[in-house]
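Help! Submission page says 'invalid entity' but I think these are all valid:
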Amino acid sequence: MTAKISLRNVSKQFTVRPAGSAGTTTLTAIDSLSLDVRDGEFLTLVGPSGSGKTTLLDLLAGLSTPTSGEVLVDGRPVTGPGKDRAVVFQQYALFPWRTASANVSIGLEGKGPDGRKLSRRERAAKASEYLKLVGLAGFEDRFPHELSGGMKQRVAIARSLAYEPDVLLMDEPFAALDAQTREQLQEELLRIWRTTGKTIVFITHGIDEAVYLGQRVAVLSARPGRLKAIVDVDIPDRDGGEDIRSTPAFVEQRHKVWTLLHDEVRLAQDAGHRKILPDGTAPDEPVLGEPAATTRERSAA
Amino acid sequence: MSATLTKPVRTAVTDTAVTTTTATGPADSRSAVGCAPAGLSAAASRAGSWLWKATGVLAFLALWELGPLYLAAPSTRVFLPPLHEVLLAWGRLFESGSIQGHLAASLGRSVAGFGIALVAGVSLGLLIAWYGRLNSVLNPLLELFRNTAALALLPVFTLLLGIGEESKVTIVAYAAFFPVLLNTIAGVKTVDPLLIRAAKSLGLNSFRLFQKVILPSAVPTIFTGIRMAGTASILVLIAAEMVGAKAGLGYLIVNAQSSFLIPDMYAGILTVSLLGLAVNFLLVALERHFSRWRTAVGA
């Protein structure tokens, strides 16, 4: 077993301004978290709001650096974003002035790993190939505003696959879609994963989604985020055409994850945890009260 | 008087240009191509709506023609000649080539000033928006300059640069500079942070990020500034030419007035409003071309 991604005692702290106060406090989003992701694995990550899921993904993507600990990809520490990793965001993040094809090929516009620049035609051909992979053949010239939510997310997936990264980091990619589209895209993602063999780290707040997609489900605790447990999802007959969500194995695993998550969700709710806003304010942090960490340690004790 | 006469026409037609922008979106043209009889009736209804929109202008022109002939006192008619006299005067000026000369003089100045403002405004705006500290230093100063009416500075420019081309080009550049600058800053600052995150995760370096994400996303806002600058530059130019010039449309208007060539004066005014219309039309078309992707943002 080779570890594609290794998190070693990773902590991430933010300096935040509690709402309505001028001072700053330190908020621990992730606390000494260690986790290995195998090469070619599909790992899903669940946790209550504010448990640092997105923070963790940012660390993996190289969009931020850990306060302490190490993030390794292929044994090398992550120093910034790289072509070996791709991110799929919940809100698609397509460039609205580019057509679907141009969106997909944006990652191909620089020099490739072999130091060669692809011509415009080669890029378009590659974009078409990946749009076809996500089931959007023929939509090359559409602008994002002409596409539905599900189609936009397909384009975003094609964009992140097009420059052939080893790792796909997905941050609640299907959360904004309706139930039917979500289910359809989940199946397609599994198909893409099987055909391309990528390592996928998939963040979700849906337990069903986590169990359905993941080979393993990592459950994070309420803030500060720690690894609470890893559940191996073992569902026989996964590739069969039947509705695996209603098989006893699925129900059992789902219940396992639910139980693990349940206490954490209640804890997070009691503390009123929400997302830390990009401007450094944390609406849920008490103005002069104790940091979230103490709350959690006390109730855990 | 001249200002009140030209203004309603200009605003009315500007509105028309804006509404047609929304009416002829990509969806419309596609449906028209899809089915021939529907396309025909669409064309007919479009012609009808054009006619409807032209009603106001036509009524105004009719009033201009008939009002002085039948409603006004003979003494007033001297100062407000009916439309056909103005058109005849315009024809004479055109034949003698003098209106082309004045138009060329005005166009040359506004294009030069506008061009300077465009280059300076966009590049300085990008710099200011990109370097936050520069912004906090320059912003109060820019506010001060922006709120100083350009025409109030005309005497200063005339004293320093004389009554030649330099002062006029400078004042046009000054007036056009601020809309471009401020809209460029606003355009860069309002780029969706998610798109920047996405671009960074795609491995774009700072330069590519700027070139491929920040600039394209700011283009529509910049173009709004450019369109405002176009209007401002013509307005200020005409005023500057009225104060001190030997050629140009502003000079033509003032000179005709003082020489008591009243129809010539109106011919000049008419040319100014047509020029304004043409400039606005051109800039709207350019803006539309560069912001096609924004057409259905609300949809």
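Support: the input was valid. A stray whitespace character was the problem, and the output above is from the cleaned input. Confidence is low (pLDDT under 50) at residues 286-301 of chain A.
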